[in-house]
Amino acid sequence: MSKQVDSRRITVPEIRARKGREKIVCLTAYTAPMAAILDQHVDLLLVGDSLGMVIHGLPNTVGVTLDMMILHGQAVMRAASRALVVVDLPFGTYESGRELAFSSATRIMRETGCQAVKVEASDGIADTIAFLTRAASLL
Fold first, then answer.
1. C-alpha–C-alpha distance, residues 81 and 47, integer Å
2. CA angle centred on 121, ends 118 and 122, rounded to 5°
3. What is the pTM of this model?
4. Which of 51, 97, 126, 136 is most enclosed, with most CB atoms within 10 A?
């Protein structure tokens, strides 16, 4: 007897609706094999910029590029069919202003098909996040 598996991808509104009510499971995946293993067990898969150290042997995340994040985001998206996929915006691709953040976020989302991007907390980032959120709502 086969087990029935829900293959529909979890959406941002579904995650938002669970806030404060249900626990949300998020794990990190950098590769297609790991995404395939985790997909049915998590709500969110994060493609984190820590892939610089974990996969590429860099000393920190500063050397991680937008192209690296896109490459790994594409791999995770190919292997995951259920989890909502979030890709980090790497260092230097959003901090100098909301226009750069928008350009970087749209490139990652367009080229990977991910449902969301993540930034690190910093001074002024709330305005950038508000701008990105408003822009996304117009799509």
1. 15
2. 130
3. 0.89
4. 51
Query: By C-alpha distance, which of 131, 133, 55, 46 is closest to 87?
Result: 46
Give yes or no for residue 126 having a pLDDT over 70.
Answer: yes
Dump pLDDT digits (tens) for 60-80. 999 999 999 999 999 999 999
Adjacent-strand bridge partners of 84? 44
**What are the residues facing 47 on neighbouring strands?**
87
The amino acid sitting at 92 is G
- The long-range contacts involving 56-59, CB below 8 angstroms and separated by at least 24 positions, are none
Helices (H) and strands (E) in the chain, counts: 6, 4
Place of tokens 């991007």: 117
